[in-house]
């Protein structure tokens, strides 16, 4: 099995705070999150929260650079890399 292709520009971006996320998005996608929580971001017109991502097991087909993934389908999804301070992230699409 070949490794999935990863598409990213590796730009660091700041997470959004809860008050920066549209109310409709909070109601439809994140109604389970309570309190003043940050860690939101919008990628390719879809909103994510860090809680949407799973950590890799030791058999993951991605290099160790990435911290987690969120699947869109069996063959595609989104990868995330968190900064050491937790304030920034890098994001990528994987297909394969």
Write the layout of secondary structure elements.
Blueprint: E1 5-7, E2 13-14, E3 16-17, H1 23-29, E4 38-43, E5 46-49, E6 54-55, E7 68-71, E8 76-82, E9 88-95
Antiparallel strand pairs: 1-9, 2-9, 3-4, 4-5, 6-7, 7-8, 8-9
Q: Mind explaining what this structure looks like?
A:
This protein is mostly beta strands and 96 residues long. The protein has one domain. Helices cover 7% and strands 40% of the residues. The protein contains one helix and nine strands, in the order βββαββββββ. The protein has one helix at 23-29; strands at 5-7, 13-14, 16-17, 38-43, 46-49, 54-55, 68-71, 76-82, 88-95. Strands 1, 2, 6, 7, 8 and 9 form a six-stranded antiparallel sheet that branches. A three-stranded antiparallel sheet has the order 3-4-5, with no helix packed on it. A hairpin with a 5-residue loop joins strand 8 (76-82) and strand 9 (88-95). The protein starts with a strand and ends with a strand. The model has no long low-confidence stretch (mean pLDDT 91).
TL;DR of this structure?
The chain is mostly beta strands and 96 residues long.
Key features of this structure:
96 residues, mainly beta, 6-stranded antiparallel sheet, 1 helix, 7% helix
Question: How far apart are the termini?
Answer: 10 Å
SSE string: EEEHEEEEEE
Strand content: 35-45%
**SS element count, helices:** 1
Give a quick account of the main beta sheet: strands, pairing sense, barrel closure: 6 strands, antiparallel
Which structural class best describes the helix and strand composition? Answer: mainly beta
């Amino acid at each position: 099995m070949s490794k999935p292709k990863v598409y990213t520009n590796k730009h660091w971006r700041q997470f959004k705070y809860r008050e920066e996320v549209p109310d409709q998005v909070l109601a439809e996608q994140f109604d389970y999150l309570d309190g003043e929580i940050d860690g939101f971001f919008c990628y390719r017109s879809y909103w994510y929260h860090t809680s949407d991502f799973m950590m890799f097991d030791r058999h993951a087909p991605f290099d160790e650079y990435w911290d987690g993934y969120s699947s869109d389908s069996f063959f595609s999804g989104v990868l995330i890399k968190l900064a050491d301070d937790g304030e920034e992230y890098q994001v990528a699409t994987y297909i394969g």
